Amino acid sequence: MKQQCIQAVQQAIGRALTQEQIKDIEGRISRNMRQLAQSDPQAWQMKTSADRLTEAANAAAKELQAEAAKKKQRVALTILAHDRVQNVMAQFPDDPLKGLDRLLAFASDYPGIMSIESSSRAIRDEAMSSMLEAIDMTRGKFLGLFADEAKARALVQELHGQDSGVPEAKVGAKQFADVANRLRERFNRAGGDVGYLDDWAIPRSHSQLKVARAKDQWIADHVQWANRSKYFKADGTRMNDAELADFFTNAWETVATGGVNKLEPGRAMGNGARANRGSESRQIHYRDADAYLAAQAKYGDKGLMDLMFGHIDRAARDIALIEAMGPNPNHAMRYHTETAAKQMTQAKPEAKAKIDKRVKRLEQLYTEVAGTREPPASAALANAFDTYRATNVAGKLGSAVITGLSDQGTLALVAKMNGMPVMKVLGNELRMLNPANASHRRLAMRAGLGIDQLIGSLARWGEEGLGTDAEIAGRASKWSQAAATKVMQLSGMNAIDAGNRRAFGTTMMDVTGDLTRRFDSLAALKEGDRKLMQQRGITDQDWSVWRLAQPEDWRGAGDQVLTPGSIYRISDAALQPLAQKVGVSPTRLREQAATRLLGMVLDETNMAIPAPGARERAFMHGNNQRGTWSGEIMRSFWQFKSFPISMISKHWRRAMAQQTGWGKAGYAAALFATATVLGAIATQVNEIASGRDPKNMLDDELGGVPGLRFGLASMLKGGALSLYGDFLFSNTTQGGTSALAAFGGPLAGDLETLLNLRGVTADAALGDRDADVIGARLIQLGKGHLPGANLWYTKAATDHMIFHQLQEYFSPGYLNRMQRRAQREFGQSYWWEPGEAGPARAPDLGAAAGN
């Protein structure tokens, strides 16, 4: 049979086949026979065996020709990508590793390169901005804590081509399908090879553990759920139940083993071209939306929103990687890294050890950018720690909005550095926060701004949980993360954070749009504006495309907001002259210009309102694998430190990138000054919200200098390190945590509390009533993990009416000791006495000046 197949295909293709093409020729012919049978089973059965073989051979020949063309395309794209990467490395002749580092992830020191991380984020957010109605359909009900099964079912029905009777679902389904197809086509233009499946509706997930535990049931269920019109034999007859069961037995083995059944011992794995990703056969076809939903409910491990957004995020990463580094970025990265390391080692052999360390860090950064970290070694352990960290967010960050006041300082500083009117940014911020002005927020979201906040991301606070529900730990993780997200929303933090980001991004797009109207090239820009554009990797080609776009006027007041949408609306005819000049298609020009615009804006937005990126995550996580004790303890150590790490690393790097010594000093001074002033305001607001009088800003307890201690504490507060400012006043924080435990993070603080209970118990047994604080400390510990317990606008009331009462009940005299300590170590009195149902007086604002 194999020789017949070879001859038939050679006759169809008109030449001899190579040995590589002959390999598995029977499987190729058989697969094409089954696919041809699907189009018209009855007609296919009427054909002779020879006719079937001829038609299947013709189809196989076309496949081989397409594969050959794709191979040539990939060779050309690899060569072009190689030259691009080499040009980047050439910008750093003495340190080509630095060039690779800047190519991978955003760096705030103006490298003149649009990083892969920036492009990936821009592609993802622009895609999500095109499916806002689909997002609305997946966000859930009852404050978003519970999935809205009716909406989810309607959306899935529409995605499967069934009429749900819900107009919003119809719109949302079309948006997601269009976005997924647009990303697929862009991926293929960059060298990918993902075909179009007319019945592909939405990604699906299979919990390896659930599937592995239920082999017979999984197979039986999928035989019932299968779309029979997709399962044919080579002769055109449909598979019967036994044959389907045999097919799904093989599918079960692949899912249950995570693909290990296809591993060839001794063969290296994991180095295949990234461009091949997604081209693997997608062989499980569900008959309708109900079958899909039943399968997901019984064997899935992700929600609808996670599946949709995960698909887009992976596609965006893949596109950014292969557009920058070619169809096989893993191989390209390894080649360029080895080339750079060899060059640097030959130039300075004595620095080899340092160079090797930098190579390791670069590999970690690539893993973070590519999203290829190893899966958790133990999902149960990872989910358990996810639950713990999420309860920390839910219980401890209800007042983070107060500390968030410091964002106004970095926002103003970065706006000024980018030549943007600061007052215009603040005006846009007020518009974005106006509850009656939903239209402006929607326009900003359609421009790709504030997308993380829309979908409830906890990225700023260092939470990236699995969110599965395969086991008890998984369900707890999922619920705790939902609670943490909701607390951030209820506190106003998400709204303010999103408002800040959308205001900054909108203003930057408006300023950029105005510049494109007034200057016909980058060279024509004023020197400062031109440098800013070039430092962010913007080219003359990008500028030419931006000028062809028609900016949007959001207020009807002459706005010039240049958005990705306005770029995508440029016609092919308008782009054709430029496309012919540079030798690319109008579609590619639009994509690159839109990605560069949004990438630039999002990068600067993350400078203005600091959030951790790939660089910070790689630094914090290193090679520590999820689901191991070392990996989870390290993630717990870094919890709540990602924001200050991000702020310090990004702004310090930018300060040092200023041209002159005065420039460096000026940037640092402005940053410290705004952090200190806004940190002081945040400190005093937080004290009042906690029922205490403001702190004395003029005390001279540190070095005899009035205000020095409070100023340093305020500066730390402005840099999101307020916890450490407490040690300027006392050996412990106001919560009683030691310096070592505070440095170790919430996990270390909680462990210290539990360990100290043993000593407290011993003291109490000896009759020391002052040590009888076990109950109070346990209440405090529990409060720190209770969602919403520290919401800034209810904190004083819940503390006095609930938690103080419980603490005093279990540890009599505890509240008096708490007041004495506040007076002794922090010089403060309570305007709302602990344990009292209501305040006896107003806050003493004069206490801030030592009165």
From TrEMBL:
It comes from the Bacteria. This is Uncharacterized protein. It comes from Pseudomonas putida (Arthrobacter siderocapsulatus). The lineage of its organism: Bacteria, Pseudomonadati, Pseudomonadota, Gammaproteobacteria, Pseudomonadales.
